């Protein structure tokens, strides 16, 4: 049986909002902006998300990523690359 998950990312802070909103975010495990957590799709979780819908971004995914997998997704590719388009433009300008 495949369980779907909510991928919840906190986009806005709860500073200045009622204490209840901060409590809902803590219950979801969201403490810092841009933090991402995964929760199984349940009516209880959906109700919590609905209470803070203006502060979070929610996606439904098939599998929850581990913290290591999320870190690997954010890591840039190693090395560098040379853009040849810049060289093409310089050659075109010299030809004129």
From TrEMBL:
It is found in: Mitochondrion. GO terms for cellular component: large ribosomal subunit; mitochondrion. It holds the Pfam family Ribosomal_L30. Its main location: mitochondrion. GO terms for biological process: translation. It comes from the Eukaryota. GO terms for molecular function: structural constituent of ribosome. Keywords: Mitochondrion, Ribonucleoprotein, Ribosomal protein. Residues 6-56 form the Large ribosomal subunit protein uL30-like ferredoxin-like fold domain. SUPFAM superfamilies: Ribosomal protein L30p/L7e (SSF55129). Component of the mitochondrial ribosome (mitoribosome), a dedicated translation machinery responsible for the synthesis of mitochondrial genome-encoded proteins, including at least some of the essential transmembrane subunits of the mitochondrial respiratory chain. The mitoribosomes are attached to the mitochondrial inner membrane and translation products are cotranslationally integrated into the membrane. Belongs to the universal ribosomal protein uL30 family. This is Large ribosomal subunit protein uL30m. It comes from Dissoconium aciculare CBS 342.82.
